[in-house]
Amino acid sequence: MSLRFGWIEVHAVDHCNNNCRWCNNSSPFFCECNHEPEEFFPWLDILEKNNIRYNHISIMGGEPFLHPDLEGFMRAFKKRYNKPLMLTTNAFWLSEEAIKAYQSVWQLTKLLFVSYYPNLLKSIGGEQQADRLIELLRSSYPHLAVDVRKQHIFTELEYSRRALDVEFYCGMSECTVLRPDGVLSRCGFGGFSYQNPYAIPELTESADMFFDLNQPFKPGRFWHWRKRWPLDACAHCTGVLHKKVSWKIEKGTRRNREIELRANLQTAHALQETGDSVAAMALIRRQRQVLPGSEKALAAVFETGGFPRLDQNPAPPPEHAMAPEGMLQRNQQETDPPHQASGVSPKAPTGSDRAARQRVSPCK
After folding, report:
1. Among 20, 6, 59, 30, which residue's Cα sits nearest to residue 192?
2. 3-state SS class at 257
3. Does pLDDT of 142 surpass 90?
4. Is 160 exposed, middle or buried (0-12, 13-18, 19+ CB in 10 A)?
5. 277-290 and 295-304 are packed helices; what angle lies between their axes, rounded to 10 degrees?
6. What is the DSSP letter of 182?
7. Cβ(76)–Cβ(37) under 8 Å?
8. ω into residue 118 within 30 of 0, thus cis?
9. Which of 99, 109, 25 has the alpha carbon at shortest distance from 63?
10. DSSP annotation string for 10-29
């Protein structure tokens, strides 16, 4: 019998425009960071060389649609490994124009996971409008399977110093997450916990959570790691309690509307380059409606036809396309009461923890 598992997860970006508490991948705590496919190739090649079989490559983040060249990122994996591609998104970009602009992405994608978040649905125009656009996407690309998940309710993910009884199976343990440094992890919450200022050693230093591809590869040892459950870390994560809670934002963070604006302007630029100026202008107008405080900046962009590009280390856009300092800050502070400790609480934050929890600005 040939051993095989479901998918390998790679991140196109580490950061996200949204700021969900209990994010599986600790995305609210990451600075802006785009990845290149070549960062993952040496590690995937090791698995290929050792006949480690899996069915799909899953493109995640962060929010993958913030990558400046998502199509190129995905195409590189498809060309090199010829695996069906899965893609996960919070759909902040969802519009008729974006569906048209991303046609190459849809052609590369086998399965699209769309998460509906309450705050992002408002910008799209509500759940009914989002459903209409998803049906348009499905009808336009019949090969594309679209799985919509309503994220009004989350599973609470906290760290627990006290060992919990692992009574329920955790589906996140089905993940095999590959980081660019060549370290595999069995779930995103553990694999990216190093960036979470509330993380505890039981997760970050777990003996069961990680498999280092920098070390000499032994297939038997890999499969022993891949099949193990529960992990030692599971007893220190409240996810095993399956406690359901209402969606909330992460304390000390905010939804990054500026990066949404940049990404959507990049989409408009792509439409303009294909000759579809009508769709490009429609997308620009919509940004003016959904992003309070951006009217002046977007009016200038609309009038001149200039579109700032979204680069890995973005240079300031042309002066006519920039909002005055503070303009895009208006109505963006989607804050939440201070983080309340649950019955199985994470470690009490020190002063340095609190400072780290607020560090969500781009890398210097």
Report:
1. 30
2. helix
3. yes
4. buried
5. 170
6. S
7. yes
8. no
9. 25
10. EESBS--SS-BTT-TT-GGG
DSSP state of 292: T
What number is the average pLDDT over the span 129-140?
98
pLDDT tens digits for range 289-337: 776 665 555 555 555 555 544 333 333 333 333 332 332 332 333 333 3
State both tokens at 330: 């208006």
276 three-state secondary structure: coil
Helix 257-273 vs helix 277-290: crossing angle, to nearest 10: 170
Q: Find the length of the chain.
A: 364
Dump pLDDT digits (tens) for 86-96. 999 999 999 99
Q: What is the DSSP letter of 280?
A: H
Q: Return the H-helix or E-strand segment holding 122.
A: helix 118-124
- One-character DSSP codes across 75-115: HHHHHHH---EEEEE--TT-SHHHHHHTHHHHHHEEEEEEE
CA distance 74 to 209: 27
Question: What is the identity of the amino acid at 41?
Answer: F
d(CA 72, CA 85): 13
- Dump strand ranges (E) for the chain: 4-11, 53-60, 85-89, 109-116, 145-150, 153-155, 177-178, 183-185, 210-212, 244-246
Q: What is the pLDDT of residues 103-127, one digit of tens each?
A: 999 999 999 999 999 999 999 999 9
- Does the pTM of the predicted model rise above 0.90? no
One-letter amino acid at 203 equals L
Cα 232 versus chain centre, distance: 26
Q: Which two tokens stand for residue 270?
A: 């792509």
- Cα 73 → chain centroid: 14
Helix boundaries (H) for the chain: 41-49, 70-81, 96-101, 103-108, 118-124, 127-140, 188-191, 201-204, 219-227, 257-273, 277-290, 295-304, 351-357
Q: How many CB atoms lie within 10 A of CB 56?
A: 16
3-class SS at 216? coil
Scan for tokens 């989002």, then name that residue.
Answer: 130
Q: Which amino acid is at 347?
A: K
Q: The dihedral of CA 315, 25, 81, 267: what is its sign?
A: negative
Closest C-alpha among 166, 172, 179 to residue 210: 179
